[in-house]
Amino acid sequence: MKTFASNSIYKCEVPYCHDYRHGLSNYCRNHAAHKRRHGAAVQVPVTAHELNLYTAMVEAKYKRNKNSSAWVIMQERWGAIRDEARAAVLQFQLDPKLQKWVARSRESNLHQSYHAYAKLEAVAETVEPWKVIKTGLAMFLLQERSPRRFVSDAAFDTQLARRVLRLAPVHSLIYWDSDAGRSKQVYRDVAPRTMQYISGHLKRAFGQPGLLLAQTLRKEAERPQQEARRLSEEIAAMV
Hints:
This protein is mainly alpha-helical. It contains 9 helices and 2 strands. Strands 1-2 form a two-stranded antiparallel sheet. Helix 7 runs antiparallel to helix 8.
């Protein structure tokens, strides 16, 4: 059985990291914290700036197809998650026994599930539905266009939940950095299992439409090349 003492003599599993493992983790303290926060020890976080390109692609598709019922269906899916989260949070607030049980078992699936619902409700109460929808779709476009961008499925799930949670101002804190001479914004860390619950709900709503939208955009991008190839073949066949 691996113990803290025996584990701490080994180096971190991340290549080129020479620090020793922390606790029972296979990683050093810094990489273990990074894995907890971002889904993988070497996962580079997705920034809002990076995602802007893909949200713009979603916006452009929406402007060309405003009357499509697909947008209504996605709004209904997000609405269903919002209602589910509200019902769960209300049940928790009205049931003292449930509150004690959840507080007593902070590492349980029940605790993580209710925590996820509370986070999703906060997003639903403070962020416009369309902003959530286009952010979710943009993440799937990014995954389809750059599959190597994510180290693992768990890393993508964490980044998906992270980007949606960051839409809500209630999930951040602003403090004054005297050294930098300006205010800075930081985000509260969320437990990995809670992030998995959140991403599960988001994938249920936006996973299928996100992948279908990515396929449609890929075909549109390939169309000029196909037309040029066909034109070249027709000219070459002329007598």
